[in-house]
Write a structure and sequence with these properties.
Elements (H helix, E strand, L loop, with lengths): L1 H20 L11 E8 L1 H7 L14 E7 L2 E11 L7 E14 L4 E14 L13 E16 L2 E14 L5 E6 L5 E5 L1
Antiparallel strand pairs: 1-2, 1-9, 2-3, 3-4, 4-5, 5-6, 6-7, 7-8, 7-9
């Protein structure tokens, strides 16, 4: 029995060493075109980590799709929420844009680019009053940070300066989109 336990421990250690050695920076030249799908995991993280019982604002985008060709990507994002309890808590956002990825190390990458964002309702940020703000369209530069778990899975956050036109209370809209949403991305 002791010998079986020793073999199991040795096997687990070898597997962990192989997993850590297999984590390398994905090479952009491996595939000419690849797709990355992301899901905003902020709500799940706040449910698992006991930081309070309040609903966390996750930002305007819930789902992300990136189509990469070498270092450049076409970005598409979608976010929506319709609450039955409070009809004023409505949100819809559609994002289109491009980005460029630069590797900082084997585990970290920096992204920059430009997005066009069309929205209706709230932006879903901390401090928003969750009332319908109308809608609008605008664009702005973005910056992001990525942490690679392995070559096909990584975590990312984005931040954006938004300049646009609104149909609600404000005609000219300027907002700083803080990095409030943590995305879990998978490469295919």
């Amino acid at each position: 029995m002791q010998q079986l336990r020793l073999y199991c421990i040795i096997y687990c250690v070898i597997c962990m060493v192989n997993l850590t050695m297999g984590q390398s920076v994905p090479d952009a030249s491996e595939k000419r075109v690849h797709t990355e799908v992301g899901l905003n995991m902020t709500s799940l993280i706040t449910l698992l980590v006991p930081l309070g019982n309040q609903v966390t604002s996750t930002g305007p985008i819930d789902y992300s799709l990136k189509v990469y060709r070498k270092k450049y990507a076409f970005r598409f994002g979608l976010g929506m929420k319709v609450s039955n309890a409070n009809e004023n808590d409505v949100r819809l956002a559609l994002r289109l844009g491009f980005e460029k990825r630069r590797y900082l190390s084997t585990k970290w990458a920096y992204t920059s680019g430009m997005d066009i964002l069309a929205y209706a309702g709230t932006f879903n940020f901390p401090g928003d009053n969750n009332q319908i703000e109308g809608g609008g369209i605008g664009l702005g530069p973005l910056a992001g940070l990525e942490f690679y778990i392995n070559s096909n899975l990584y975590l990312s956050v984005d931040s954006m300066l938004f300049f646009g036109f609104g149909a609600g209370d404000e005609f000219l809209v300027f907002r700083v989109f803080p990095p409030v949403g943590i995305f879990l991305n998978a490469r295919f």
